[in-house]
Structure formats: C-alpha cells, structure tokens
C-alpha cells in the first residue's frame, strides 16, 4: 500500500446502526476529513432515502459502502482496530484519548489497513465486539453531558486523524516497519490457544469467556507481529495432543 496515502487505509466501521440518517451524516463527516472507506455491519435500514438526504454531497461514500454480516468480515484483514466507547469496562484494552488514538492509527495506516469501530446509537459496542479490537478510544467530554451522537464522534475522530497525518513528519520507512498480524490471523491464534488450553485441562470449556478476555487483553497490549503469531502458533502446534 502506498505509504503516502494513509487516510485511504482507514476504515470507519459502524456496527448495527439503527437510524439510516446517522449513516448518511457519518458519511458526510468522513468526506469532509478525506476519509472514504465506510463499512456497515448489519445496519437496520440501508440503503435508505434518509441516509442519502443526510449525506448531502457524500452520497458516493454510501454507494461504495461495504455491507458486512459480521464484524470479522469488516475488520479481519486490518492490522489495528480501535473501538470507540464512552463507558469504563472491566478487563478493557489500553484506552487512549482521541488524539493519541489517531496518532497510533495513522502510524500503522501508512502500511496496512486500520479501523475505527463505532457501536449502536443507544447502547454502544458490546464486550465481544470490543474484545476483537486492540485499543479502546475515549473522547473527552463534559461529565455533565458526555453523550455524542454517532456522526459527531466520527467527525471528531476524522479531524484528529487528519491532524495526526499533517503533524507527522518523520516516519518509519517501510523497510524497517514490522508488519503487524491481521485481526483474522490473531483471531485464528486465539481459537488455537483456546483449543490447547481446553485440551490441557487448564481452561474449563463450560466457562471460557473470562479467561479468554484476559488473554485477549494481554496480547492486545503486545501488538503482535505476523512473525510472532507464527511462532506462537508453532508452539501451540508442537504441544497439540490431538495432532
């Protein structure tokens, strides 16, 4: 991927959006900041006239939007995804503010696809959705009224991404940039890890979720590279008693 066009490597992913007007408004916010990759995971209504009306001159983003039936389909080939959440979570991943997260995303977007994940208007993202991301992002707001609508959150993050792009002068050359594992590769590793942990008796197959959330948090902090995932999968294969 051309390292001079990092914004083209940024995906805005909207999960289970209930109001089509919010999709259109989000598309408009994206276009003003130079973002063009819109992914929709199981939207309630789309396409829809209300989305077209709210998008205004950003209808082209709606026409090229990717409609996905699962979150993995939307982010599986990305190397880094940040989840927008306003609520504190147990066992949460490292949390950055909007500016810090934008800087981290732009750094990796120079060489591979990255994503920003936004949840339902009423309830936000679920814990399983967040567990598939490596970072959580919090947009600082007034404690008296911290609720941002979807398009406003997209606009703020789009602005921060654009500023991060313009503020970055010295970047790591592609030759020296370690290639992060894709989320699809990491999910396959988690599945393999869970299988081996159950085989060994370390993990109770009736209650795997809490421990696996902790393992996800651990490896999310590490920022696994492709080669590291291959090494870990090799270790798991070497002790696989069912081979």
Short account of what is shown:
Helices cover 45% and strands 13% of the residues. It is of the alpha/beta class and 243 residues long.
CATH class division of the largest domain: Alpha Beta
Number of domains: 2
Distance between the termini: 38 Å
Level of helix content? 40-55%
Question: Which spans have pLDDT < 50 for at least 5 consecutive residues?
Answer: 169-173
What is the overall pLDDT average?
88
CA-based gyration radius: 19 Å
What can be said about the biggest beta sheet? Answer: 7 strands, parallel
Q: Which geometry do the CA atoms define?
A: globular
Structural class: alpha/beta
Strand order of the largest sheet: 3-2-1-6-4-7-5
- Structure summary, number of beta strands: 7
Function: Catalyzes the formation of 2'O-methylated cytidine (Cm32) or 2'O-methylated uridine (Um32) at position 32 in tRNA.
Organism: Nitrosomonas mobilis
EC number: 2.1.1.200
GO molecular function: RNA binding; tRNA (cytidine(32)-2'-O)-methyltransferase activity; tRNA (cytidine(32)/uridine(32)-2'-O)-methyltransferase activity
Summarize the SSE layout with pairings.
Elements: E1 10-15, H1 20-32, E2 37-41, H2 49-55, H3 59-63, E3 66-68, H4 71-75, E4 80-84, E5 95-97, H5 98-109, E6 114-118, H6 127-131, E7 135-138, H7 150-167, H8 183-199, H9 209-222, H10 226-238
Parallel strand pairs: 1-2, 1-6, 2-3, 4-6, 4-7, 5-7
């Amino acid at each position: 991927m051309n390292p001079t066009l990092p914004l083209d490597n940024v995906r805005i992913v909207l999960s289970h959006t209930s109001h089509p007007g919010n999709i259109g408004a989000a598309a408009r916010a994206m276009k003003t900041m130079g973002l063009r990759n819109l992914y929709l995971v199981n939207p309630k209504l789309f396409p829809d006239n209300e989305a077209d009306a709210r998008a205004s001159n950003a209808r082209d983003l709606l026409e090229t939007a990717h409609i996905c039936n699962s979150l993995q389909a939307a982010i599986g080939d990305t190397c880094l995804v940040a989840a927008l959440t306003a609520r504190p979570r147990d066992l949460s991943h490292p949390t950055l503010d909007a500016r810090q997260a934008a800087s981290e995303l732009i750094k990796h977007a120079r060489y591979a696809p990255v994503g920003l994940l936004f949840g339902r208007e009423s309830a936000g993202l679920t814990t399983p959705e967040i567990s598939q991301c490596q970072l959580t992002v919090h947009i600082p707001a007034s404690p008296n009224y911290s609720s941002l609508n979807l398009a406003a959150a997209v606009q703020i993050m789009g602005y921060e991404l654009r500023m991060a792009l313009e503020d970055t002068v010295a970047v790591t050359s592609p030759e020296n940039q370690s290639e992060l594992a894709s989320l699809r590769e990491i999910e396959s590793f988690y599945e393999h890890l869970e299988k081996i942990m159950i085989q060994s008796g370390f993990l109770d197959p009736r209650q795997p979720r809490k421990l696996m959330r902790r393992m996800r948090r651990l490896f999310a902090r590490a920022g696994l590279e492709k080669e590291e995932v291959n090494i870990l999968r090799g270790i798991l294969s070497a002790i696989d008693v069912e081979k």
